[in-house]
Amino acid sequence: MMQINGTITTVHNHAGCVAAALAPDNLSNMDTKAEGDRVITTITGTQLRSVIASVDDYLMNLAVAEDACSIRNNERNNRTR
To answer: 68: alpha, beta or left, given left = phi > 0 and alpha = psi -120 to 50?
Structure first.
């Protein structure tokens, strides 16, 4: 059986928040971590269609997580002013 591995790396102002927001939606074939200003996610699988579906879901979740963390960060900044 063929093993498919892929890594997605994205850069964020608040990578820790984004990685934490993504973690609950990770499937068993996914690993997400924050390193500095980067969110690094590795996706593995044995069927290409399944890996593609996981990547598609992840990218939608990433967009939502980025928006949520940006809003949270902006709210914090407004409270400290």
So the answer is: alpha
d(CA 53, CA 79): 39
Average pLDDT over residues 9-30: 94
Quote the mean pLDDT of the chain. 91
**Domain 4-79 class?**
alpha beta
Distance CA 36, CA 16 (A): 8
Residue boundaries of the structural domains of the chain = 4-79
- The pTM of the full predicted model, rounded to 2 decimals, is 0.85
